[in-house]
Structure formats: structure tokens, C-alpha cells
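Raw record, unedited: N-acetyltransferase domain-containing protein
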Amino acid sequence: MDSEPVRIRNLQPEDIKSAMGLVLSEGWNQTEKDWGLLIRNTQNVCLAAEVGGELVATATAINYSNDVAWVGMVLVNKKYRGRGISKILLNSIFDKLKSCKSIKLDATPAGRHVYNKVGFADEYMISRMANNPHEDFNFDIRGIAPERIQEEDITAVIAFDKHLFGADRSQLIRSLINDYPEKSWLIKRGSQISGFALGREGNKYHQIGPVSALSAGDAQILLAGALKYLSRQSVVIDILDDKQELAEWLSSAGFVKQRGFIRMFRKNNPYPGEVSLQYLISGPEFG
């Protein structure tokens, strides 16, 4: 097995079922639709490693207008670990992203040292929290209530996200709204957006995120509105660790911390966005 060469190539739509096999073997939450979002946009870098014609590893980078590229989906079949395949994939991604101004990712604690070795530094911490699916969500939303995002709102949501996130995520935002309109919420104060929340279905959990808002109160209203329709269903969120008040509110609603992530950047971080106004990320594969 060790003597067989590793071949690096682009991921193709026909690879999705094999790539999902890697996801399921690790107990991750992504779906075929998530892989499709990554693969179908030619600006993104989506790579496969093959050994003997078998897909044994993947790595992706979703490219946000060549300002920020987000590395994710670094998966290696257990039988082929220890051969440096993930490092080969990462170096191939870095080579293809030479013109991109910033490369970032969300690492697990176990993966942190791997990324340190290839030039990544810590930015901040994120916690994954999950609910008890046997309990209802009962929230008393007073005053302003979130409303579903409409087609005519999408351009404004993308602009709002670009300001707060720090880069243009049009492909992600538009895809999430179009694919999951029932999980797409915003708050307007006057005629201006003051926050939004998106979501998607996973193979294990519903995931809420990103959530960005001009105040912690609006972030909580958005989350309450989104969760209202997910009672007695499995939900996961990835929350920035500095959002303690919101995390305590989620804990009171039955969410518990599962694990942490470390947001990291390679070499420089020219597009951090307004971190104080970012509450939930979209997931470690999307940022």
C-alpha cells in the first residue's frame, strides 16, 4: 500500500459519493449538497488524492472573490494516514491560491499543530454546541420579529455580510438562501438590515449559521426565530467564544458544548471583518 503513488487531481461531481464516504466515516455533518456547492464553482479549489484508483483523501478551499479563501474538508481515509497526504493536498491548494490575498480555516484542536507547521496562526476560538432533540424550543419573542429573506433582499444581505465578514461571500450566501429559504431570516430596523441568520440541513444535524447582527439582542431574536421551527430536531451551532451572553442563553435552551475550533490565518489577515458583530459561523468548511 505504501509503495503505491499518490495522485492529486481536481474533485469532480462524480466523486461526491466517495467523498461522502469519508465524511460519514468521520461522523461529520456535511451532505452531498455541500460538496456540490464547493465543486460546482470553478473559482474554488477542490482536490482529491487517489491511490491505486481509489479516492482516499480530499481538501477544499472556497474562494471568496480572491480576497479570502477558506480551507476545509481535509479528510484522509484512516488506512492511508501517516503518508503525508494531507500535507501534499494543502501544499497543492496553497500553490493554486497564490493570487489570493488571505487563506483561513477553522481547525480542530487535534489539527492545530498540522496547520501551525504550514504557516497558520491563531485568530480566535469557536465552540460547537448541540441541543437535546427531545426538548421543545419555547421562546417569547417580544417586539420586532425576524422575517423570511425574500429574493429582493438577497443583494442587501450579501452587502451586509461582506461588511461584517470582511469578504464577498456571494456564492455561499446566495446558495444557502436559495437551497434553504425556510432557514433564511433577517431583521430590519426601518428600511435597513440589522441582522440575518441562515441555515442548512446536515446528515446528522440542522446547522444554523452564519448569524451576524448589529447587536447581541438582534442575534438572539434571529436565533429564537430560527430555532422555533426546529423543536425536537437535532441542531448544531458554531459560536464565537467571546459571545458569552448568547452562549449562556443557548445553554439555558438545552445546548451543550461538544468541542472547539480555532480560527486561523496563514501569514496575514487583511480581511478580519467586524468580529464583534459575528455570532455564529457557517461551519468550518465555509467560514
